[in-house]
Every structure is written in C-alpha cells, then in structure tokens.
Design a protein that fits this description.
26% of the residues lie in helices and 26% in strands. By secondary structure, it is an alpha+beta fold. It has two domains: 105 residues, no CATH class; 126 residues, Serine Threonine Protein Phosphatase 5, Tetratricopeptide repeat (Alpha Horseshoe), CATH 1.25.40. The strands form two sheets. Strands 7-6-2-3-10-9-8 form a seven-stranded antiparallel sheet, with no helix packed on it. It starts with a strand and ends with a strand.
Length: 248
C-alpha cells in the first residue's frame, strides 16, 4: 500500500476537464475506491490502497461526470505481493516477547547498513506494520503480561532503537506496551532511551523523551485515516486524493 500509481489514458479516453476518474480495486473480502489527480490530459496519479492480503484483484478505471452515469473506461488485474518488508513486519510482530528471536535479530547490528538503506528499511517496515492485522491483544512486550518491568529482557523497542528506525519506533510507541518498553533494561542494562543516547541518535532520543515530539516525516505520514465500522477513508495530503475502503 501507499505506492504511487500512474495511469496512462489512451487518445480516445482523453476527455473534458469536468470528467472525474476513479480507480476501484475489488478483492476477495475488501473493496477500495480511490480518487485520482490529473497530471496532464493523458495521465492520472493516485496511491495504491493497503490491502488485507496478498492476492490478485480486479481494478477498474471509472469516469464520472455530473448529470451522466458512471462509465467503466478500462479494467485490469493488479497484484498485491508479499515482499521482504511485509515478511519482516510479520516476523517482528510474532516475536514480540520471544527472547530467543529478539536476541537473534541483534546480529543485524553487527553489519550496520548505510544511512540511506536504514531510511528505506525504516519506511518500508513501518508501512508494512501499519497494514498488518494485529490481534486485539497484541502488545509490544509480548503475550506474557505477568512479567514485571524489573526483569531484564530484550524488547521490540530495543530492536527498533538499536538500528535507528525512527518511524518504526514511533509506530511501536503508539501500540499497547510501547511506552512501558522505554523503561525496560536488557541483559546489558540498556533501556531503549539509553541506547539512543549511547549511539548518538539525537532525533530518536527526542522522540522517546519528549511528550510533544511529532511523528517523523515519511510518505505514510502524509495520510490521515478515519475509521467508521466496516469503512475507512484515507486522505493523502501530498497528492490531494481520497481512498475509501469497505469490507465486501
């Protein structure tokens, strides 16, 4: 989800300015409708919806004009694929509280990636996490809520901070157990806050310690979503397009 989509119109589809184009994605359990932005007479832009599973869906380009019925201009298939970011988000979500798995992730720290790669990883994994269907009882600290904050252990927050993942850290902070993870020491006596300070991650340290800290800039933060029952509406400020998602 949240990838940029460009639609190229054929000569016969280039019509008057008062025609509005929409894309309708029909999946097995969910349907999305996105508005589009005209770049020029032959091109449209919009964003892809965050889908609930990896599958091939039908997408229809529809044209609307005041006083006329909606026309289906063209149809095509569109594939939602399971990529590395999705796999990573699923793995991290399932290993919350699993000490063996969390300690295993620490090997990533020994081969630290260039800043540009970390930024790309941060954006993609945080976005994938946003689109995961997390269980209602999911917690950053894992399923065992009987553990006290005094027990040294590794947490998902330690993982995100150790790699300098700003956006993933912000996402985890908003989840149950996110704030509680900040005061937990690992086996080396480090909290996520002290890790950020030790590694010189000033922005990350500010994010963890300042109550008024704002969400880090990202493509995903340009979107604002409102949920209502089986429906949700997302507004993307960058492209000025809307996305309606409904359970079929």
């Amino acid at each position: 989800g949240d990838s940029l989509i460009t639609v190229q119109l054929t000569e016969e589809d280039k019509v008057e300015d008062d025609v509005v184009f929409y894309l309708v994605f029909t999946g097995s359990t969910v349907q999305h409708c996105t508005s589009t932005r005209k770049i020029n007479p032959g091109s449209l832009e919009t964003i892809s919806p965050g889908h609930d599973c990896c599958e091939t869906v039908k997408v229809a380009l529809c044209a609307s004009r005041k006083g006329h019925r909606v026309l289906v201009v063209a149809e095509e298939s569109f594939q939602f694929v399971q990529d590395e970011a999705y796999d990573a988000a699923q793995f991290l979500a399932t290993c919350a509280g699993n000490q063996q798995a969390l300690n295993f992730t620490r090997f990533l720290d020994r081969s630290r990636s260039p800043a540009a790669d970390v930024d790309f990883l941060d954006e993609k994994v945080a976005l994938a996490f946003r689109h995961l269907k997390l269980p209602a009882e999911w917690n950053v600290l894992g399923a065992d809520q009987s553990l006290t904050e005094n027990i040294p252990r590794e947490t998902l927050m330690h993982f995100a901070v150790r790699l300098g993942l700003l956006r993933l850290t912000w996402f985890l902070l908003q989840q149950p157990g996110g704030r509680g993870a900040l005061s937990i020491h690992n086996s080396e006596g480090a909290t996520p806050v002290s890790l950020a300070l030790e590694r010189g991650y000033q922005k990350l340290h500010h994010l963890l310690t300042e109550e008024e800290a704002r969400e880090p800039d990202a493509w995903s933060t340009l979107s604002h979503t409102v949920h209502s029952g089986d429906y949700s509406v997302k507004y993307h400020r960058g492209l000025d397009v809307y996305l309606l998602t409904a359970e079929a």
